[in-house]
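Box 3.1 A note on notation
Throughout this textbook, protein chains are presented in two layers. The first layer is the amino acid sequence; the second is a token string describing backbone geometry. Keep the layers aligned when reading.
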Amino acid sequence: MGPSILGLLGRSSFLVFYFGAAMTGAAAHLSEQLWGYAKYGPRYRETRALGGSGAGMGLVTLYACMAPQSTFYMYFIPVPAWLCAGGLVAYDLYGAMRGNDGVAHTGHLGGAAFGAAYYLLRLRRGRF
């Protein structure tokens, strides 16, 4: 997945994409943390995040948009990329709605949103 995206974007655009997805994921997580603290006060359980998993979700989402029929192997079961990315997003949506469980679900969703937006706004229009 990484070499395909790197080959398409080039080094500098890949770094911009990666750090953009990381920062978007971190911003989404921070907004969720601020909302939780505003709603529950000091009782709210804080979760730390740096954005690496948001960047990873951005890469998975971008790859699934670029090559939706490619195959990921999950526990030795072949799964189309679109289904894998959709399942990960659905899992994180469920986790975000369920409440704070120590996983930065909103950070993952922020990275996925960045990957989808990057594909729709930049790659699909043919601009690199």
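The chain has a mean pLDDT of 87. The chain has one domain: 2-123.
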